[in-house]
Request: fold
Amino acid sequence: MNRTADYWIQHLQLKPHPEGGAYARVYASSFILQQTALPIAFSGDRHSCTHIYYLLEQNDFSGFHRIQSDELWHHYDGECLCIYELSKEGKLTEHLLGKNIDAGEQPFYVIKAGSWFASRLKNKTGFVLVGCTVSPGFDFAEFEMAEKEKLLKEYPEHSKYINELCRK
Reply:
């Protein structure tokens, strides 16, 4: 059965996300990691793991941002998603998240903690529904949206993607 973006937004009760797209937090582990057990970049206690549904449509995109945890991406439905990962060393990698293995897509990727990353639909048509699992668990306290001018100064060789995929 073919589902639409509106179907998923309604049935999963997705809301707008600050980076673009729509999301709903659907899991937060009851196991709490104390701040003293976490790297210094964490400003408080964290769930050991969290998970969200995340949906992008057509020309929308997830703007460059970074978090202090690894983020595991899972493809659920829809089109291929391009995830652009910019490592601390300045290497830009394009991950194709999808189910068409013959076309180089994979149903799962990990974005490393501290990497800048952004995403958009490969063909800018339709929608994609994915899941994002974060460990230690996600908290907006460690969520950082990229500032285009700062990112351009640091990684001028990637200006095409930075100009296209920054929200501020």
Remarks:
- The mean pLDDT is 96.
- The radius of gyration is 16 Å.
- Helices lie at 5-11, 148-154, 159-164.
- The longest helix spans residues 5-11.
